Amino acid sequence: MASGLKHRLYEILEAGHPEDVTSRVFDLTMVVIIIGNVAAVAMETVESFSAQYGTAMRVFELASVAIFTVEYLARLWVADQHLP
Predict the structure, then answer these.
(1) pTM, 2 dp
(2) If exposure means fewest CB atoms within 10 Å of the residue's CB, which of 28, 36, 71, 75 is most exposed?
(3) What is the pLDDT of residues 28-37, one digit of tens each?
């Protein structure tokens, strides 16, 4: 069971098959989060925006770090799936 889950997670995270909807949604979600982080960092340099939305941007940043950490740990877990 765990081996099947591990391989499926590998397919979603690494393989990137165009016909795999889950993999495509994951990839798109990660790109949106990355772009959102870049935009937040840029907007944080504007004092008026930072004063008004600073808390929301910090929450978004913390949530993003949590998501990226889980993704990284998942990639470490499936790393052995690269072997032939």
Answers:
(1) 0.82
(2) 28
(3) 999 999 999 9
